[in-house]
Amino acid sequence: MSNVAEQIQQQAEEFRNRYRAVRDEIGKVIVGHDEIVHGVLTSMFVGGHCLLEGVPGLGKTMLVRTLAETLNLPFSRIQFTPDLMPADILGTNMIVENDQGRKAFEFQKGPIFTQILLADEINRATPKTQSALLETMQEGTVTVGGTRYELDKPFFVLATQNPIEQEGTYPLPEAQLDRFLFKLVVGYSTRDELNTIVDRTTRGTRIDTNKIMDAAEIRRWQQLVREVILAKHVQDYIVRLVLATHPEGPMAQDVTNQYIRWGSSPRGAQTLALASKVRALLDGRFNVSFEDIRRVFLPSMRHRTLLNFEAQAEGIDIDQVLLDILEKVPEKSDDALAGMAS
């Protein structure tokens, strides 16, 4: 047993070191936004997709490009606009002529055939085009003209969107938002960070990044993450947190009934479980703790919980409501554990 424990500990330590190497390499280019970088990397090692929300010019595009260079993966960028069509993303069958003059249909792959895809300003495209991308995110395949095409693994979509209040946007429906593992809110840089950004970008210097990982290693770490132990009583904490977002439910909190219209789907529980496993590995452990879950609660749930009109009228932010729920739900529940045991 000691040999097994040592092997597990070595794997966790190796993952932590490799993770830090990627994060540090990205830090050569991206100034600040440590939690955003952390969230993006967590999403990738879980095998999910990530949504970044923030005003233009905060470095979201640069983050994705740097991530692709560091991981040595093919990278594509799609600028979403109101006139963008699904075929512009997926590809289309075109008539081509060979050397003998014979004509035939040939599929021309779209930019989605990559491994890291930046969907820039996804809420500026029409719902029809948004759905084409989100369907591919869910299935990992593209179907055109009755033919199904598999995308290379890992396949990671990082979508950016402007805040809802900006003009010319088509907000993603809640069912489509649910397909993103995390929603990360990118804020403004601090005074020191802005000084560093200006120094790096206005002096004609270029910062080159080294390739740290490849696709095979990423897939290996994604498998390791799923092997991290999630004890029953810790899993029950995840379940109770998700149930606490359901208004009028048996575990709903007062703030839930007052301000929430719709609570989280089961994907919220799956996200909390997987993302907290990454946090456990980064702390050198092979088992999930309550603190791991709390640290990933907001990015996992803020796009899966819908506020009602009263909350909007009072200017209540979704993070405020979720933090209140996180504070009120206890780590341990004797009644819940007794029910599970029976």
Helices and strands in order:
Layout: H1 2-27, H2 34-46, E1 50-53, H3 60-71, E2 75-79, H4 86-90, E3 91-97, E4 103-109, E5 116-120, H5 127-139, E6 141-144, E7 147-150, E8 156-161, H6 174-177, E9 182-185, H7 191-201, H8 215-227, H9 232-243, H10 254-259, E10 260-262, H11 266-282, H12 290-295, H13 297-301, E11 306-307, H14 309-313, H15 318-328, H16 334-341
Parallel strand pairs: 1-8, 1-9, 2-5, 5-8
Antiparallel strand pairs: 3-4, 6-7, 10-11
Helix pairs in contact: 1-2, 2-11, 9-11
Structural class comes to: alpha/beta
Residue runs with pLDDT of under 50 for 5 or more positions? 336-342
CATH-level-4 superfamily name of the largest domain: P-loop containing nucleotide triphosphate hydrolases
Range of helix content: 40-55%
Task: Give me the Rg, rounded.
Answer: 22 Å
What can you tell me about this protein's structure?
This protein has 342 residues and is an alpha/beta fold. The protein folds into 2 domains: 1-80 and 113-204 and 211-227, 3-Layer(aba) Sandwich (Rossmann fold), CATH 3.40.50; 228-342, Orthogonal Bundle (Helicase, Ruva Protein, domain 3), CATH 1.10.8. It contains 16 helices and 11 strands. It has a 5-stranded parallel β-sheet. Strand 6 and strand 7 (147-150) form a beta hairpin. Helix 1 crosses helix 2 (34-46) and helix 2 (34-46) packs across helix 11 (266-282). The longest helix has 26 residues, at 2-27.
